[in-house]
Amino acid sequence: MGGRTPLVVLTFSLAVLSIELGISHGCRETERKALIDFKRGLHDPSNRISSWVGEDCCAWEGVACSNISGHVIKLDLRNKRCKWAVRGDITPSLRSLQQLSHLDLSGNYFTHKPIPKFLGAFRRLTYLNLSGAGFVGRVPDQLGNLSTLQHLDLSYNCYWVDEGDGFFCLYLENTRWISMLTSLRHLNMNWVNLTNASNWLQDLNVLPRVQEIELSSCDLGTFPRSLSHINFTFLITLDLRGNDINSTILDWVFNITSLEFLYLGGNDLHGFFPDSVTKLTSLRALDLSGSVFQDGFMQVAPISNLCQLQILYLSQVPINDLSGSFPDWLGNIKNLKSLDLSFNSLYGSVPASIGNLSLLQHLYLDSNDLNGTISKGIGQLKSLVDLYLKSNSLSLSEDDLANLSNLKYLDISLFMDFCQIGPTPQFPKWLRTQTTLRDLDLSSAGIKDMFFDRLPSSLEYLDLRNNSLSGHLPPKILNMMPRLEYLDLSNNKITETIPNWLPSGLQYLDLSDNKITGNLSLRITNIMSSLQWFDLSTNNMSGEIPFSYCQLRNLEGLQLSENNLSGEVPNCWKNSSNLLLLDLSSNKLVGGVPDSLCNLQTLESLHLSHNNLSGPIPHCLKSCTELSTLDLGHNNFIGNIPTWIGESLLSLKTLSLRSNAFNGRIPQLSSLSSLRILDLSNNNLSGTIPQSFGNFSALRSTPMYHCCYFNDGRVYEDDMWLFIKGSEFKYTTSQLSIDALIDLSNNNLSGNIPEELGNLHGLRSLNLSRNYLIGQIPRSIDGMKQLEVLDLSRNNLSVQFLPVWRP
Ligand SMILES: *[C@@H]1O[C@H](CO)[C@@H](O)[C@H](O)[C@H]1NC(C)=O
Ligand SMILES: *[C@@H]1O[C@H](CO)[C@@H](O)[C@H](O)[C@H]1NC(C)=O
Ligand SMILES: *[C@@H]1O[C@H](CO)[C@@H](O)[C@H](O)[C@H]1NC(C)=O
Ligand SMILES: *[C@@H]1O[C@H](CO)[C@@H](O)[C@H](O)[C@H]1NC(C)=O
Ligand SMILES: *[C@@H]1O[C@H](CO)[C@@H](O)[C@H](O)[C@H]1NC(C)=O
Ligand SMILES: *[C@@H]1O[C@H](CO)[C@@H](O)[C@H](O)[C@H]1NC(C)=O
Ligand SMILES: *[C@@H]1O[C@H](CO)[C@@H](O)[C@H](O)[C@H]1NC(C)=O
Ligand SMILES: *[C@@H]1O[C@H](CO)[C@@H](O)[C@H](O)[C@H]1NC(C)=O
Ligand SMILES: *[C@@H]1O[C@H](CO)[C@@H](O)[C@H](O)[C@H]1NC(C)=O
Ligand SMILES: *[C@@H]1O[C@H](CO)[C@@H](O)[C@H](O)[C@H]1NC(C)=O
Ligand SMILES: *[C@@H]1O[C@H](CO)[C@@H](O)[C@H](O)[C@H]1NC(C)=O
Ligand SMILES: *[C@@H]1O[C@H](CO)[C@@H](O)[C@H](O)[C@H]1NC(C)=O
Question: Which of 744, 732, 731 is nearest to 790 (CA)?
Fold first, then answer.
């Protein structure tokens, strides 16, 4: 009998355990519904929250529940890459997540709405991150109820707002509510407008635990003058950069003796620099860039007593005549790792004492008037990793930098005197001894020779853009840099054919803007899986495009424009390709658009303009739904403009079919909500201008900056030729993204100009000339405030109203 008791107890506790597990598996219905409702309010183009289906919301991406209560306690939708943002509105139903302690919506896009007031009801919140999430407007005071909040990040919410026609940010009217966040440790309000919150310092001074205060670019404008007592016992970081603070440096800053990082650059600090800086014995970083001190560098000499100092930024500190020579005392700050003295008018030579900074890794002396030879001092800085010397008049002798064996980044571009080595500028011999140098920027350095054998074999990044390198690329020489990933030789005078051997691992190769001749044959075996970007535009290449280019399976960009390439567009493209950009424009290509091109499902930009291509636009192109630029102008394409363009290619921003032989009516295109450039001119189009043209939503307001991204998030350029104001210009990505035009000129269009076109308030150029349009010019055109070019000539329009000319 007695033996049974433990069993009963065991059964009982198992029951309790399973009740607990029962709660923690599968989330609470109200919270699940709240999340579903939240999801419904969001557009999620990259399916980041597609896992939000089914019963157990605790298992959904970004959601975490308490194991005890089963409540949702964490919602983390942080977006790390531009293209993965969810966008939309925050639905009030989110309020049901009462137990939330961690909320991170940073990097998404809540279309210029204010931060919802109800966030102040999340009483258990310890972490709130709304950085760069598309919010503008007044930050609600209700956030002051979050008394357990430890981390608050509202930084980088500034946007062009179309409706308001301007730049809008988050702003605070006052900071009183922040003083109620008594648990706060980390406050980041970079770029939040605090121009009216003049009491910010007093309000923050009552936060007992605060460790980091980041208020850069907040338009603070002034430094509160008097403060009876400094409270900040634990403050480690104070960042007030870029606030245009016009003030003397006030003593109280130097009473915060816990400070380790003090950033005051980008202000108008002036006057005497107090000796009391020496009280900051823990200081590791000091940024005073942009300040003007009474006696220049002599004044700041007390800094040399800060023996923990590792980072010192004194860039753009105007020097008066007393102290324009290089400050000798810098050699005393033995722990210095990073020193920025760029953009000062320091003259003379660099003193040998700088060689005492044996830990120095980053040295920025660019844009000064230093002259003479590079001192023995710099040559002794064995730890140096980055060295920026450009825009000085220093000269290098052969072995000056030979002992800097850790150098990884060397920028001596625009370093004119570098020619002292020989009769013509050439690569200095000591470069060869730099066995660790990874990045070398010698762009715009006036180099003429091609002695690649003098370059270190350790290079991964080599930028030789805009020099006068001529002759041919010796094939074996590239072999000497086996680790090369990035090679930019654009804008030189290279004439010979491209080497058919390239280092395996090469990812980026830019040979554009040279005089390279020959055909495109490329032995691809060793770069097949590495090459991501290949730019050969603006050269004299001839022959056909070989099939081997289709096999570069990681290629994201192929630019072959402005050459003499002939034959057809190769028909070998595979759907395993990663191509984002294909530019074959301005060549002599013939034939049609091959069907296999439609396999390029990731393609964002297709340029085939200025060739002799013919035939209709293939129907299968419908499946390239990522296309944002389709540029087929100046060819001999025929047939109707397919209706599926307006139905399937919903990402289109730029559509140019200019100067072809398209006929028939213009289809409905107004679903293309991102379209900003539409050029259908010089065709045989007939019928009327669709009324729905007034609905292009991207043209109804001023533009948002958009860009193009590599698959790893870096930005690439996608240039294009456009015909505006009577001539053709090359537009860069950033210009394209702000331009807005419709050109339907030189067709057979008839009927009236739809009144609705006047809704396109963001349009900058409208050309309807040389058609058979009749009726009156609609009055609504007067509302198109951005319009710079309006051409309605050579139609049969009657003029009862003339738009007001706006310069
Ligand atoms: C909840 O469970 C996870 C693992 O399932 C564990 O790592 C975590 O510590 C638990 N939390 C609590 C509060 O018990
Ligand atoms: C907030 O998120 C951003 C990334 O979106 C991150 O850089 C930042 O450090 C986060 N802030 C805090 C306080 O963790
Ligand atoms: C904040 O607290 C005050 C009083 O404690 C209350 O009146 C107010 O409604 C609260 N606001 C929110 C958003 O919870
Ligand atoms: C901050 O607001 C003021 C006044 O509203 C404005 O003049 C200023 O340009 C704003 N600053 C920023 C950075 O938006
Ligand atoms: C600051 O206050 C002025 C005057 O009250 C107001 O016009 C302006 O919009 C406010 N700006 C900000 C950013 O709070
Ligand atoms: C210092 O902090 C305490 C409590 O946080 C506060 O009561 C006091 O007013 C603060 N002192 C000043 C000068 O702001
Ligand atoms: C700064 O410290 C000095 C003494 O070192 C003291 O006299 C002064 O009142 C302090 N200032 C503030 C604002 O705390
Ligand atoms: C700073 O303020 C003073 C007067 O307070 C003024 O004379 C000076 O021009 C201002 N400096 C700047 C850069 O705005
Ligand atoms: C630098 O070190 C040398 C010894 O290597 C010493 O003679 C010189 O005084 C030091 N200079 C400075 C400025 O510390
Ligand atoms: C450096 O410039 C100064 C004037 O700024 C001049 O006197 C001196 O001769 C120059 N030194 C050298 C080596 O060019
Ligand atoms: C480089 O190091 C060697 C050996 O330590 C030394 O003799 C030479 O002077 C150094 N060169 C420079 C420019 O410091
Ligand atoms: C090219 O280099 C020259 C100096 O050699 C410079 O003046 C020019 O600005 C550079 N051009 C570009 C586009 O960088």
Answer: 744
Q: State whether the Cα torsion 416-417-423-425 is positive or negative.
A: negative
Nearest atom (ligand 8) to Cα of 247: 1
Question: Tens digits of per-residue pLDDT, 455-505?
Answer: 777 788 888 888 888 776 655 556 667 788 999 999 998 887 776 667 778
Query: For ligand 4, atom 4, which residue shows the shortest CA distance?
Result: 195
* Ligand 9 centroid to residue 355 C-alpha, Å: 8
Q: Which ligand is nearest to the CA of 59?
A: 1
**Nearest residue (CA) to ligand 9, atom 9:** 353
What b/e sequence results for 175-185 when a residue is b if at least 16 CB atoms lie within 10 Å of its CB, and e otherwise? bebbbbbeebb
Backbone angles phi, psi at 508, to 5 degrees: -135, 120
Residue found by looking up tokens 């991207």 in the block = 698
Domains with residue ranges and CATH for the chain: 1-220 (3.80.10.10)
- Measured CA to CA, the distance from residue 649 to residue 629 in angstroms comes to 10
> Across residues 595-605, what is the average pLDDT?
94
Lowest mean pLDDT, pick from 284-293, 314-323, 340-349: 314-323
- State the chain's mean pLDDT as an integer: 84
Q: Whose CA is nearest to atom 4 of ligand 9?
A: 356
Nearest ligand, CA of residue 248? 8
Ligand 8 pocket mutation, candidates 223, 225, 246, criterion most atoms within 8 A of CB: 246
pTM over 0.70: no
